[in-house]
Amino acid sequence: MTTILLIEQILNGLQSGIMLFLMAAGLTLIFGVMGLINLAHGSLYMVGAFAAAAVAAATGSFALGLVAALIAAAAAGALIELVVIRRLYDRDHLDQVLATFALILVFSEGTRWLFGSFPLYLDVPAALSGPVTLPGGILYPAYRLLIIGVGLLIAVGLFALIARTRIGIQIRAGEADREMIAALGVDISKLYTLVFALGAALAGLAGAMVGAIQSVQVGMGEPVLILAFVVIVIGGIGSIKGALVGALLVGLTDTLGGVLLPLGFGAFMDQSAATSIGSALASMSIYILMAGVLLFKPTGLFGEG
Amino acid sequence: MRREAILNIVLFLLLPVTAGAALLLDEPFIITLATKAAILALAGVGLNIALGLGGLVSLGHAAFFGLGGYAMGILAAHAQSYTPLMETPFLIEGTKSMPVIWLVAIVVAGLAALAIGALSLRTSGVYFIMITLAFGQMLYYFAISWPAYGGEDGLSIYVRNGFPGLNTLDPIQFFAIAFVVLALALLLAGRLARSAFGLALSAARQNAERVETVGLAPYRLRLVAFVISGAITGLAGALFADLNRFVSPVMFSWQTSGEIMVFVILGGVGRLYGPVAGAALFILLEHVLGGLSEYWHVYLGLLLLMVVLFARGGLIGTVAGREVAHD
What we know:
Chain A is built from eleven helices and two strands; from the N terminus they run H-H-H-H-E-E-H-H-H-H-H-H-H. Chain A is mainly α. Chain B has a two-stranded antiparallel ribbon. Residues 323-327 of chain B have low confidence and may be disordered.
């Protein structure tokens, strides 16, 4: 295994981690502020990817596709918040799980009905489709590098939004004591819709950007949703910082485990057995990571309580 | 007689009467549907012990369902290819005998529930939901990436496993097996709910601090309930695999967990016969709506949304009223 390959894999891990962060940040905000577990977050990721693919195919512009993804996912998020989700804030988690599971069924089959079962393709813009040369002579796809950059920018923006702006103060106050900020005259239901739409927009953007690397298809959101849950459990529910650390840990573990474990087992057993044991273990590695964190910190790395 | 008690008798008789009528009308497909409903109801009865009685919202019961399925698939695959499961340190052969397979499924699923439960029950609330979901998904990816037993394609078993004295390939006889198992599980679940253990578990759901104050350990109560719940769902998985003569990683998928939960909720959480009503309704909807539209999951989703938002208590709660809730 060469150093170049290792660096490439680390970058891949960072890229998938930063996209997971976009998903996990929305989920953890929604849980922190509204106390809601939203299984349909993966559907918003899918909505973003489909909107981007449809608009990019119609206009030929990838950038317009990304804008469409943001708008479509935020609009879908605001819509389901207004129609369904706001009836669930006072309910127990079981009702929230079921209602959002029902939303997944509606979104998935609705999308299948609109776009068919075949995957759509979203092409990386020509200017970004080639590789760039990094210091040390490493060739790395420009688009993946862009994803890492955009993701980091959004992370910084999100931290600034929460730490420095008036909305951010209201969000943090909402996490701490929702009755009190309602009493202080903040329109809490508008704030909730806003937070939900913000989370949805982040998920939609992630879906569109990842959709250009993988294919855009029904059901693409749920595996990412479950990874985002693992991220939140590791990082601690409600903590944006925890979501960032957790997402990078999960992204790196997942990517590096898939490469290093088969190689590691290959050192002392024959190749085919090493590949099968290594890849089977690698597929479990992030869950083992999660179990390990839970053993020592049941509320996650940055969780309270 | 309370309305729920009457409804329970109707529900209990619903499946055998349907299967019997289908036998008279010579409609083996309907018998198979009734068998499927009975097996899925069994999975729901398992989940209901954790969910309804213990208040543990497990979104990972597909793990146990799938383990039961693979227990059947692996044992039967070795038996049909005449290769032993392992030779060292001692010989284990495959088997085509249902009782042996059931025992293995119950033990394997129970042990998995012990391990998953021991970790997940350290947490509660949303963490618990997410962690059980994640462990289910872990087994799903493991089943996909482990090539020895079919990987993503799953395992086909050519002939249904045998049960001493019965011809399991005859639909009505296989239905009888599944239904008797379901009836026994309902008996067990009903007994459990009224036992000292069940009362303590219910109390731990309602107020864990008080239970602790009287000297009981909620963690242990919940873990035992989770193991029993997982074992029953594992048994249902073995039967389900036998019904289809096929196992695949889909049995482990999170959709399966969601669907098992849907049976329980459609019927009514914490109601002994809730899973029976829910599974029967689910199969009916799948059959009727699935015939009308390829996209029947949209209607299922909308219906589920309506039940959650407006008809709390599910089918049994709506028909029997709230006053007879089991606690």
